[in-house]
Write a structure and sequence with these properties.
185 residues, alpha+beta, 4-stranded antiparallel β-sheet
């Protein structure tokens, strides 16, 4: 079993041009606003930074199988935990992101933690944590004011955090999908 750390991950990061409305919610409600950029987690925990050189070719190989697609963030849902609930945006088409996750797991089966939850892998973009009694009203209010955003999903990123990054996640490398590339011969 490989060693895993909570200081690295493979994630989808929406482009900066669609982040402002997401960040305006996260800034107020997400206790992880400073540590994490807006993201959809694919693999977490992941391998240590010392293994990045050996893992990057595997991640690059996965992108050879991927075709860019348009993702829409239009509606909210929530996970209930013991003390609080996590409110999140649902990325659609969900099944395409699940397929990306499955493709990653075919190459890296030992990093299956995100698929071990009841119901399996559930792609989501967290926007905040709420007390259970406040969740319904918060979800309704945010949904009423939300204008759906779309972006081209054409990559995923390997990220890490350390003392050098002030414990904030930063991008180590972004892996562009190869299928559908205009430069393809």
């Amino acid at each position: 079993m490989p060693s895993k750390t909570h200081s690295t991950a493979v994630v989808i990061i929406p482009p900066e041009e669609v982040q402002p409305p997401i960040q305006s919610i996260r800034r107020i409600h997400d206790r992880n606003f400073e540590r994490w950029m807006p993201h959809i987690t694919l693999l977490y925990p992941f391998t240590s930074q010392s293994n990045f050189d050996s893992i990057k070719p595997i991640l690059a190989e996965v992108t050879q199988q991927m075709t860019p697609l348009v993702v829409k963030l239009a509606s909210f849902d929530a996970f209930r935990h013991s003390k609080t609930s996590t409110l999140f945006l649902i990325p659609e088409p969900k099944y395409e992101i699940v397929a990306l996750h499955e493709t990653l797991l075919q190459s890296l089966p030992e990093y299956d933690d995100t698929s071990r939850y009841h119901g399996g892998f559930n792609p989501h973009l967290s926007v905040g944590q709420f007390q259970h009694n406040l969740l319904s009203n918060a979800k309704q209010r945010l949904q009423e004011n939300w204008k759906p955003v779309e972006f081209l999903l054409d990559s995923f990123s390997l990220i890490y955090r350390s003392e050098k990054t002030e414990d904030r996640f930063v991008i180590a490398e972004t892996f562009l999908f190869s299928k559908g590339d205009k430069n393809e011969n």
